[in-house]
Amino acid sequence: MMFGLVAAALSALTASACLVQVRVACPNDTPATGVRVWLETVGSVYTDDLGIATFTVSSFGTYSVCVDTTTLPAGATLSPNCQKVKVVDLAPPVVVFVLGGNICSTPPAPGPCWLTGGGTIGKTKGVGDFSFGGVVYPGCSPNAADGGNWNVVDHASGLHFQGQQIIVDSCSGVSTTSPKVNVNIIDFHGTGILGGIGGNPDATIAVSFVGRAIDNHESGGGSDMLYLSVSDGSSTVLKVGNSADDPAIISTGNLQIHTTGCNK
């Protein structure tokens, strides 16, 4: 099934493990399918139809991520083929390998959109105020892990939000160049859980949320924007940014809006 690998991996997130997601694709958003990706001490996974390889790690630290260039599609080039990724909390960034070569000459057709992202917002005493990471609506599919998995960690309060059932409401805005797509704003909502209640990392409550991500520039630090409002039904229990019209500017990392697979 097209999104089976994404769905299975995304749904595996637990309180003691987190996801490291790797995407191999062109600047025009054309993905590389069936590429072998290695994560240090974990093993290897092949990219799916969206160019995504997803790993579950059980401990924080710095990992080496490498792409087996012998498995790249014909006409694709990649240099360098290894990167480092720091997993410091339950919202690690998405690692992106950017391809070159003939495979990147024809962009995907315009269509609806989906989101990958990861990074931090703000900083207090050397630590980001918020960390975020995940995938929303991979390939525009509501069936892939119930629409994805979006994570935000509020370091001041020790709260960890997991958006587990996600619906995209709209894709709008202007065209962007990396990846080359026809929109730069995605609005979404859904339900999930909030952990860390009362300082207990195992205590969770059911929540609902609304979010907006804006992909303004590549890379996104200092330019891309994120808004998230999480409610327990009676009050707002976690908030990033002031409103959908006044979102927070991310400090590090990236937000990328994609259209690959949306017309299938």
List keywords for this structure.
264 residues; mainly beta; Immunoglobulin-like; 10-stranded antiparallel β-sheet; 4-stranded antiparallel β-sheet; 1 helix; disordered N terminus
Written account of the structure:
- By secondary structure, the chain is mainly beta.
- The protein has one domain (4-258): Immunoglobulins (Immunoglobulin-like, Sandwich).
- Helices cover 3% and strands 48% of the residues.
- The protein has one helix at 4-10; strands at residues 18-25, 36-39, 43-46, 52-57, 61-67, 76-77, 82-87, 95-98, 100-101, 114-121, 130-136, 148-154, 159-172, 176-177, 180-181, 185-195, 204-214, 225-231, 236-240, 248-249, 252-258.
- The strands form 5 sheets. Strands 10, 11, 12, 13, 16, 17, 18, 19, 20 and 21 form a 10-stranded antiparallel sheet that branches.
- A hairpin with a 4-residue loop joins strand 18 (225-231) and strand 19.
- The two termini are 13 Å apart.
Q: Give, in order, the helices and strands.
A: HEEEEEEEEEEEEEEEEEEEEE
% residues in beta strands: over 45%
Rg from Cα: 17 Å
Task: Tell me the overall shape.
Answer: globular
Number of helices: 1
